[in-house]
């Protein structure tokens, strides 16, 4: 099933179940997707699964930063709300790779591209992003690739 269809069916189920948190989060996701659709309208394109996955990953990252800020400010109830929204968003993201799977993917990408120096880091990261969109935190993978190529 398309990711957009899964989101819409989840939205309908949240309406039926009167789950306010889930409903609000799914509406925010749909609004972000619709914004991208509108931005792509001049090119007569719509947002695909890869772009939706990127939007969801960005939303999770934003909520993690907000939750951290709320915790530092002592607003634990708001931090918990952000954590709850993250759980809802992550239901629609692909499964995250474990640490060993990430290391194996990095090793495979390095050997496939024939990377030998830091100049080749861009090619390695491009391969990883193509193969594993939304399945790993590229902010953490970048330093790992850099360390392997140094």
Structural notes for this entry:
The structure is a single chain. The protein has 150 residues and is mainly α. The radius of gyration is 18 Å and the shape is globular. It folds into 2 domains: 3-90, Hypothetical Protein Yqey, Chain: A, domain1, CATH 1.10.1510.10; 99-149, Arc Repressor Mutant, subunit A (Orthogonal Bundle). The termini are far apart. Helix 2 packs across helix 4. Helices cover 75% and strands 0% of the residues. It is built from 7 helices and no strands. The model has no long low-confidence stretch (mean pLDDT 89). It has helices at 3-17, 20-40, 49-72, 76-90, 99-113, 121-131, 138-149.
List keywords for this structure.
mainly alpha, Hypothetical Protein Yqey, Chain: A, domain1, Arc Repressor Mutant, subunit A, 75% helix, globular
């Amino acid at each position: 099933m398309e990711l957009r269809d899964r989101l819409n069916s989840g939205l309908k189920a949240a309406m039926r179940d009167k789950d306010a948190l889930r409903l609000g989060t799914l509406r925010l996701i749909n609004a972000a997707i619709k914004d991208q659709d509108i931005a792509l309208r001049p090119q007569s394109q719509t947002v695909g699964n890869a772009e939706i996955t990127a939007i969801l990953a960005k939303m999770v990252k934003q909520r993690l930063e907000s939750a951290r800020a709320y915790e530092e400010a002592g607003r634990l109830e708001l931090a918990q709300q952000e954590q709850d929204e993250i759980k809802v968003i992550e239901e629609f993201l692909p499964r995250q790779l474990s640490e060993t799977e990430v290391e194996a993917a990095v090793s495979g990408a390095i050997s496939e591209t024939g990377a030998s120096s830091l100049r080749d880091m861009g090619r390695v990261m491009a391969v990883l992003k193509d193969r594993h969109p939304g399945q790993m935190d590229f902010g953490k993978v970048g330093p790992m690739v850099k360390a392997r190529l140094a």
